[in-house]
Amino acid sequence: MIIEETKTFIDLIKLGEIEFDAILGMDWLSAYSAHVDCNGKRIIFKIEGVPEFIFEGVKVSHAISIISAIRATKLLRQGCPEFLASVLDTNGTNIKFETIPIVNEFPGVFLEDL
After folding, report:
1. Is residue 17 over pLDDT 70?
2. What gap in Å lies between CA 37 and CA 21, rounded to an integer?
3. Does pTM top 0.70 for this prediction?
4. pLDDT digits over 27-71, tens only?
């Protein structure tokens, strides 16, 4: 994997057709002296002998419109129109939680419905 012209090595495991591009394990992150800035959506690499470099994730330019069930109920009572959508992914494969190596090693970090 090349980040900011710095070549790193990574073992990739295909997890099926899910939304993640890659999940970097704690061992890999620590091997490359990575500091994860969740709020800034970036990873700062401070490798000895290499100038510091940063990988920045994609930032959403607009807020995603999500409302709670309580708010939705209030809006419906006020007469707002309602729509129900049901989506079924028939192309997806069922991946068992136990079969994903990194996820299995750190179950407290990942959601059960991953």
Report:
1. no
2. 18
3. no
4. 888 888 889 888 888 889 888 888 888 888 776 666 667 777 888
| Distances from the Cα of 96 to the Cα of 25, 80, 87, angstroms | 19, 40, 21
Q: How far is CA 95 from the centre of its chain?
A: 17
Q: Map out the domains of the chain as residue ranges.
A: 2-105
CA distance 11 to 27: 11
Return the beta strands (E) in the chain as ranges: 2-3, 6-7, 34-37, 42-45, 53-56
Phi, psi of 9 (to 5 degrees): -115, 140
Helix (H, G, I), strand (E, B) or coil at 54: strand
